[in-house]
Write the structure tokens for this entry.
Amino acid sequence: MNHTLSGSYLKLINEKSKNPDKHPTLQNKITMKNSIIPMSALFVTGLVLPLHAGILVDYDGTDDYVSSDTDFARKASQSGSGPYVSDNPFSDSSQLSPSSGYTGPTFYGGYNYTSSTVNGYLSRQQIRDYTPNADQIFLQAYKGTGWSGSTLTLHGIYIFNQADFNPGFETGSVSLDGVSITWTGYITSVDSSSFDGRLAVEKSGTYYLSQTVIDLANNSGSFSLSGTSMQNELWAEFNPSSSLNFDAGSANFNSLDLESITAVGLYFEEDGWAGSSSQTTSFGLGIKTFEATGTAIPEKSHMSVLFGMTVLAVAGIWRRVRRQKAVA
């Protein structure tokens, strides 16, 4: 690295050319002068905390989380006489994931399923032991005589909280870099209904759903969003504690800074579809894998301390140079 010498040093160089023995410490001074910037640069480089990227959540049913079908820790209550309602209110503090017999990531959320005229409810709310395919986060509504004449609805959300992220990401500021999901999904198709999913995130205590819609009516589905596509995604506020039914038609989608994310998950819904007498399962949804990647960001307070330490160190170097010049 080249540095411009001050006028005083140029004067000393000229004097040394005339009287080489008069200034024996000149070369040392020039060396010290040239070393100030590189030394401080090394000091700063050594102190700045690097960004740490990795996997925040890794639900992978092939890891064999259960040895048999294992019910959720919280299950829906069943009530009504038309409509018939299965309701499991949203909670991000009371887990859905099984409290025992399960070794996978902890997850939260809630869901609601209704049948207008047929007396039927959710039949599976569990981690389904789907050996050898994958242990799936599974919801299903089954009725042996079918669902003919009934209008059906489903709304729900699964959430993975930051406190349960992988080590290194469970506290502090974390940015969301990407999400990938695989699933098995089924819904009765007599009215060509869709089965919609959306990504979900929490930031500063508010939940948001993605504008991008995932088609969950696929028996072997997959979806991923990352990089520029993730950065450019639009999001709308969503309050699952108030209602699990997201009204996309009146939602206001905007860009969202994905730093300081405190939860990530999947929203799923079908606002209304017709049951069938020939189809005993009105819907089934099994999440095989859910992976979220992100980056841990150093706290600003830590960076302020490091900057202050760097300033003091550089000031100390300058004082040493000034003392050496005074002695010389």
The first helix runs from residue 7 to 18.
